[in-house]
Amino acid sequence: MDAALRMLARRALSEAEIRERLAKKGFPDGQAQAVIGRLRELGLADDPGLCARLARYCRETRGYGPAKAAWFLRARGFPRELVEEAVRGSRSPEEEEASASAVLRKKFRGVLPPGREGAARAYRFLAGRGFSPGASRRAIGGLTKAIREGED
Predict the structure, then answer these.
(1) What pTM does this model have?
(2) Cβ contacts of residue 43 below 8 Å, gap of 6+?
(3) How far is the first Cα of the chain from the last one, in angstroms, to the nearest whole number?
(4) DSSP code, position 44
């Protein structure tokens, strides 16, 4: 229990991360399960709450799209159902498009590189950030239209 509390004093961890770190320290799986159960009782291990907070962090702070946010959460050891619920609940299609537009404006300082190559570069950037193809195309189209109309 002391080892788990020291881990949690540094940062919030998923149950899978706690289990993995305890195993690396040589604690048997049964003992790790008992510790995680006690941490749950104390409110120190809350996978649904932590997953939702991290999904919001991915969206608002990191500028990730749904696919990259899901990858990030799965890497932290959260169950697939919990990740899908957190990502689905954190963003509507309109919010995804607005977020993609904001990330694109920040990356390219409001001016896309010229021509098809510029649009392709912007698309690859958004795809790498985990945005859906439709949201990426609409964000690029919106920024291109704003540039043509002289807006920012």
Answers:
(1) 0.81
(2) none
(3) 54
(4) S
